[in-house]
Amino acid sequence: MSRSAISAGVYGRPIFFAGTGEKVDDLEPFHPDRMAGRILGMGDVMSLIEKTQDEFDEDEAADLERKIRKQQFTLDDFLTQMKQVRRMGPLGNLMKMVPGMGKAMRGMGQVDERELDRLEAIIHSMTPYERAHPAEINGSRRKRIATGSGTTVQAVNRLVKQFGQMNKLMKQLSEGKMPDPQQLMRGMR
Questions:
Q1: Residue 180 and residue 117 share a domain
Q2: Considering the entire predicted model, what is its pTM?
Q3: Same-domain pairing of 69 and 91
């Protein structure tokens, strides 16, 4: 019998940790029901909630909610949220914890973490005024931002457009309106 075929049941010892990646940071407490849910593509909402509670502060969440309701959400706030989410682990692993996203992720391929690095570089290349007022970024500013971030003007345009759409969506949600999913998908392209 090979070593890989020997299970914990043979030794009569419980499993305390499971590795979800190749690094030591990828060890997490083993919960058989959660692991089964991941394998079956049903997600792991409890682990996602635990990771979120560890990373986000209640006061920060309340402040963020206030900004969203008053439509004062800026690219600085977006950058802060993106950094907090990235500290929770690779985005692909987080998406797999959401029920139904496991199958959707297989069709889309892996989440490119380098794209998040590019977004961060673009935002860091903006002035504080530009981060607070992205709609006022004109052509020459977009060219300067693209040069400063090592990206293209099209990448800057895409970020500004998607941020504007995200603000519209947050405005609709704060007003209690449900956005049209087809219109939302058309806008993301």
A1: yes
A2: 0.60
A3: yes
Q: Phi first, then psi: give them for residue 139, nearest 5 degrees.
A: -60, -45
For the stretch 47-92, pLDDT in tens is 666 666 666 677 777 787 788 777 788 899 888 888 877 877 777 7
Q: Are strands 17-19 and 27-29 parallel, antiparallel or unpaired?
A: antiparallel
The CATH code of the domain that includes 122 is 1.10.260.30
Looking at the 3D structure of the chain, how many domains does it have?
2
pLDDT at residue 9 in the model: 54
- Residue 163 domain-assigned (yes or no): yes
For residue 169, what are the domain limits? 112-184
Residue 31 confidence class, pLDDT cut points 50, 70, 90: low
Regarding whether 101 and 40 lie in a shared domain, the answer is yes
